[in-house]
Amino acid sequence: MVDQIAHFLSGVPKELVTICIAMLPVSELRGAIPWALAPPPFGGGMTWSEAYSLAVFGNFIPVIPLLLFLEPASNRLRRYPVFDKFFEWLFTRTRRRGKIVERYEAIGLILFVAIPLPITGAWTGTVAAFIFGVRFWYALPAVVAGICIAGCVVTLASLGIISVFGITG
């Protein structure tokens, strides 16, 4: 998936490709950082600090609009059956995965966003903040903190310092 996005953006500066990959709900940091760190022609060939900074920035870009406009947009779009069905699916899935946010609010939101697994991240975190009523000024720093932590985890994993099975010695 990330390869297809990067190929679509071929000819675009590698920094912008990294930001775009990080902005997308399917890839976020999990796709942007490994791509940015991979050597050309498979990736951007960036340093870890460039990859981390650009991916975190890109992942942050949709957060404020999502936190501010998810509720009014969903309320308006739910008038149409196809969108109502989509939002019902999205909200049900997020409620199931977001028990930690429901219980611990902002701290739970940090942890929810920080775990770089499928169905977690900034996009789903903003949906969870909306569903569980975490106010904007609590949700924003929590999502940003989660993005920063997830960026560290993904960067370290991508560099081979940690693996899926834990810290390697």
Helical segment count: 10
What assembly state would you assign to the polypeptide chains in this entry? Answer: single chain
Please list the strands of the largest sheet in the order they lie side by side.
1-2
How many strands appear in the DSSP assignment? 2
| Secondary-structure class | mainly alpha
Q: How many domain modules?
A: 2
Q: Mean pLDDT, rounded to whole units?
A: 89
Strand percent estimate: under 5%
Helix content: over 70%
Question: Separation of termini?
Answer: 31 Å
Q: What Rg do the Cα atoms give? A: 16 Å
SSE ordering = HHHHHHHHHHEE
Apparent shape: globular
Report on the biggest sheet.
2 strands, antiparallel
Sequence stretches where pLDDT stays below 50 over 5 or more residues: 162-169
Word description of this protein:
The protein is mostly helical. The chain has 2 domains: 2-60, no CATH class; 63-153, no CATH class. 72% of the residues lie in helices and 2% in strands. The chain is built from 10 helices and 2 strands; from the N terminus they run H-H-H-H-H-H-H-H-H-H-E-E. It has helices at 2-8, 14-23, 28-37, 48-60, 63-77, 81-97, 99-104, 106-114, 122-131, 136-159; strands spanning 162-163, 166-167. A two-stranded antiparallel ribbon has the order 1-2. Strand 1 and strand 2 (166-167) form a beta hairpin. Helix 3 (28-37) runs antiparallel to helix 4 (48-60), helix 5 (63-77) packs across helix 10 and helix 9 (122-131) runs antiparallel to helix 10. It is globular, with a radius of gyration of 16 Å. It starts with a helix and ends with a strand. Residues 162-169 have low confidence and may be disordered.
